User: Fold this.
Amino acid sequence: MNIAVVSILFISLLLRFGFEFGADVTMDMTENVFDNAEPNKMYSIDFECVDSQFFSSFDGAWVIQEYDATKTMVKYIVDVKPKGPVPVAALEWRIKEDVPINIMSVAEAAAKRADIVKREMSQKEYEQLEGISSQKTQPQAQVPRSSLAQELPPSPQEQADQSSNNPLQQLAENAKQTAKQVLPEPIYSFSRRAVKTVDKANPLTRAAIALSPNPVGTVLAMTLLSGDDSNQDTRRSKPAGETRKKSSKENRLSSKETLGNNDVGWYEDETLSTYLKKKK
Amino acid sequence: MFASPSYAQQRTSAYHQSSSSLQVSSIDGINASYPKIKSPSNYYTQFYKDGVLVGIESTSSNSRRISGEIIIDTPIDAIWSILTDYDNLSVHVPNLVDSKVINNGDRIVGSTPRVYQRGAQKM
Assistant:
């Protein structure tokens, strides 16, 4: 009987009994740093299988060598020999798929880590710069604060207060909150609209409002004349929403495309039998 | 007999010129235009898969040497830190369900950690 037929039979038997090929390997890792490889750094990890259910041999190495400051060659080599009745073709079929996936996932993880390291570095630099600038400017400002509140650490509320420094803004925010709670909904929304119309109005109109004999009345009239803004917004937002949906769909598609390109094809649509047939 | 190393280098450099970072967008094209290379008697096979140059060598009728090689735009130390972080390797590598150092908790430089790994391959 031919090897291909045997391996197909074997795999179909495994599938028949719901078997999942989960190869476990215990390996001894030897880490090497090649000092004599200057100027290009070179590291390697030799691994040697000491115990495995599937492999009588699973020995190999990771070799990484620096090309320049940013480019690195990554090489993975493994010698595999099956244990027991497992045909070598099955291992070959599986591992040839796994090798690029493993290398690429390690590469991606490393790229992410390098990014994080870079960001941390820039953060440190930024903090250093910030420290220098604060040393220059802060001493005068800190004198009254330290003398007043030396013993009392700032409570969370105080800290929150400091974060929004402007007391006027705070007052306005508080007023808004109380208004929202106290006033009935239509009145509240109308007053919001009035505030908005004043905000939107150009400086000249604002000046006109301020100079008019009855500013409040003018604002109310303006708000009424401007029409129901919220309704207009919803009317306008409908087609806008559609376009947004479309664009998001497109975005999703495009991101999928890029993902598809970046993605490592986890499982190629190639069965063991077709692989062996192609090999022939 | 086999593909000359210059061929591999050319292809790898072509790939890296076409992409500035870890984008593997041009690889389908490479796969399409550079098909499998085989030595007579199927002793050695070489092909590109996801930008990685994969080689399969029949070292005997019952054993194989499988290799993968790529040049990536990442500093060497970042890769080294990922590869030697055995306890977290299964976080990065989707084919690994489990990966852990089983002999010594405190790592000494130059020691040989014994690592247990379990794959997640499905047939």
Summary: Chain A has nine helices and four strands. Chain A touches chain B through 75 residues (CB under 8 Å). The longest strand of chain A covers residues 55-66.
